Amino acid sequence: MVQEHVPVLIVGGGIVGLSTSLFLLHQGVPSLLVERHASTSILPRARGIHFRTMEFYREIGLDETIRATGAAVIKQGSFGGFLIGETLLCARRQPIAMAGGRGRGESLQDLSPEDFCFCPQDELEPVLLASAHQRGGDLRFNTELISFEQDDDGVTATLVEHASGTRSTVRADYMIAADGARSPMSAALGITQSGEGTLEHYLNIYFEADLSEQVRGKEFSQCLIERPDMYGVLVSINNTDRWVFHLSYDPAKGETPDDFPPEHCQELIRRAIGLPDLAVEIRSIGPWESAVRIADSFQRGRIFLVGDAAHLMPPWGGFGANTGIADAHNLAWKLAAVFNGQATPDLLATYEMERRPVACFSAEQSALRSDIRIRYGLGSAEETKAVQQKLVSMNVVVGGYQYCSPTIFAEDEGAPTYDRLSFDGRPGTRVPHVWIEYRGQLISTLDLLWRGFVLLTGPDGRAWYEAANRLASRLDIELEAYRVGPSGDLLDPECYWHEAAGVAPDGALLMRPDGIVAWRSWKSVPQPERVLEQVMMRVLCRVL
Prior knowledge:
Layout: E1 4-11, H1 15-26, E2 31-35, E3 48-49, H2 51-59, H3 63-73, E4 82-85, E5 92-93, E6 117-118, H4 121-134, E7 138-141, E8 143-151, E9 154-161, E10 166-177, H5 184-189, E11 193-208, H6 212-215, E12 222-227, E13 230-236, E14 242-249, H7 262-273, E15 281-295, E16 299-300, E17 303-305, E18 311-312, H8 319-339, H9 350-368, H10 372-375, H11 381-388, H12 394-399, E19 435-438, E20 441-444, E21 453-457, H13 462-475, E22 479-485, E23 490-491, H14 496-500, E24 508-511, E25 517-521, H15 528-539
Parallel strand pairs: 1-2, 1-10, 2-7, 4-12, 10-17, 21-22, 22-23
Antiparallel strand pairs: 3-6, 4-5, 8-9, 9-10, 11-14, 11-15, 12-13, 13-14, 15-18, 16-17, 19-20, 21-24, 24-25
């Protein structure tokens, strides 16, 4: 007997699953999230939140809370330096050799209202969980999916609550697999994977040790430790007493994680740091693979893969979790558009079309950064040059991508390129950020994002503005329109916006609920309402 029904069942309560719940709540779609563990992660793991991800959190009003949470972790000193050396005590600063790359573009300050934020995963996840609860989310930890079946109309899932052993059945219209790198759901669906596979094996040794005095004045993000009997990266969590040591080991030489019990790891850490009497408390030891594995399909019927379940990539550059959160953001508004009757289910097929190419490129860039010696400028000139020629700036990977799907009115021929970080209004890219005045308050154009579509026109775009309002009323679609200029709804005295958007003063641009430009018109056209109707029908996968 089916005990309950939910629109969306999310399996996995990590950083991506929790973000999925929040984005769906923001779009007005109830969901049930289940997580087999009893609590959020106790490990720092992902540490860096890229500017595009912070834009997503800004949209739901969490950016300031997350930034304050991250700032509280860094108790002293600066963050972002890189050290190399045989031990921490003799390490020297070294600019990271692979920080740049092609397409560095303009200053990020001019392109986004947000910036990079440091907030370890074990600090971020409780913030996301608390916010989801406050917004009425149904999130059940210590609850595991043990089986599921799907049909043409939905998914039937069997859950078990570990504390009591109680089993229950849930019927969901759609299900989202956010269940991690070795996703049981992906395996059960028979989804194959592509990619380079395993690149290297590491032990993640999370420990506490007071190194305040040792790092004072040379605070860092990562320190390469290279000794004849030891190779790895020491990662700072707060530059005082919380650290992670990624120790490389080689199964081809017969090494296994069992060869590294806590006592041995304590000794290795003391030798790596150079303090034989250092008090070290091991919090966790776990093996992991630096690997590239991309699911060959992100959707199977009414089930979608997000995060590591869809794409596993090396951690270098921090692309993994951020790419997964972008998956969730892309999928959430599309599910909402289907649920509220704005779009047909055909819109959901664009999730894979848009996100999988981005995931493949992000994984490729992560893999290029996997060679630690080259990353720190210690490789040969030939090796470094070969990698640099393929490398793209981190910020370009983070936000410079361009979606391609039938719902995007592409203007460029051929495949999208990742050669610049410039948001210029091209369909498929994130809408340009411009500071404007709205009702006496200075906001970004990205702050106009809501549950529906937004049409922005230049100062002379009244015809588009009026056509959009008539169309929204006639077809009952969620479409807001604003005129941007020296006068109008959004004040832009210097007329920066229409130049940034690549349209004339009487042109227009259509922004999706995720901030992506779906269409633009350089100038005014005859019968603007008819043109807009054709655009909206295609974007929502509806037939005129």
